[in-house]
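Weekly sync notes, structure subgroup
Attendees: PM, AL, DS (notes)

Item 1: joint prediction request from the bench team. They want all two components modeled as one assembly rather than separately. Inputs as received:
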Amino acid sequence: MLLADIGNTRVHIFDGKNVLHLSHEEAIAGYHTVPLLYICVNQAVKSHIEYLALWEDISCCLSLKGEYATMGVDRKALCLSHTNGIFVDAGSAITVDIVKDGVYQGGFILPGIKAYLESYKTISPALDIELNRECSLSSLPLTTKDSVSYGIIASIKAVLDSHKTDLPLYFTGGDGEWLSSLFPDSKFDELLVFKGMQKALKDKSC
Amino acid sequence: MLLADIGNTRVHIFDGKNVLHLSHEEAIAGYHTVPLLYICVNQAVKSHIEYLALWEDISCCLSLKGEYATMGVDRKALCLSHTNGIFVDAGSAITVDIVKDGVYQGGFILPGIKAYLESYKTISPALDIELNRECSLSSLPLTTKDSVSYGIIASIKAVLDSHKTDLPLYFTGGDGEWLSSLFPDSKFDELLVFKGMQKALKDKSC
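Output from the run, pasted for the record:
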């Protein structure tokens, strides 16, 4: 059975082997005739797809000990993927969630890399730059481009470092593989959300 | 003599005692008939005010050892205010600059608080929140509002903590006083930029 994680900007479809990353329009056009189990955080898209006969919303199957009422269903899925971990989903937003012995401990949200860059752009045209992903964190920047790149990367790294415990650190999402490379003992796994969905489907009778 | 620090969104005018915070329009309408020395980082405003006979741009007087070519003149002024320090200007952007023995060591830029909040809003309507400035940093959040507030505040705090040295930590700017309260040994001084301008005027013959 196909699984879909419908995010704010993209749809991620998992066929049991590979993950496809599509726009909302591409996903609906290409897959509306195929049975598919999904979770969706985009309310506008949700109101469109609830009429697709073969697509089933499995949000109600996802239950996480310690979850809070308005917690995004994709974050719940992520947190169900392993019993212990710090889970970082680096997509449109960067969500950071901590789970200990299967119980949700809390989490926080940073802007996604694209949202960070857009926000600098709104402050001043002088700050409209492309991210330098190779920007060194071992010396202080001396150019505007690196001042912005360093600001983004060093602040994400510092806040994650300040939450470091003996829990494993997992990354997923579009910028997850690159961010993971900044943390030597971390693991990137683009399937985390789907693993959480699979666990929920296995544990629940829905 | 009046001094003015013309920023991206506001004009800050110092009369030797108090600082007035005005919109660009208010500042020009209220003060164009008065002699005033200014620095300006807003190119659009700069092209308007260069025709004001009594306003003088003193950017060329501001010279900082170790500065880089495209460094904002307000950051240079800030760095001239003390011979040693970590200088945080929390306005439209949050700039962080380090000076040791009068020599600029480098710096980085974070979005300002307002820009952070706007960036979350662009990601999803669910993240359109007002900052909870009282958000606790000692326990992980369990609401969306606090997840966003914590993300902003904890990442700024963590990246500043990771640069902590024996240099004094100074804050200025609209959110400077509040941010300063998160760092026990720091000092808030809304006059830092003006002190740097005064030093430059004293040292140079311009």
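Discussion: Chain A touches chain B through 49 residues (CB under 8 Å).
Action: AL to compare against the crosslinking data before next sync.
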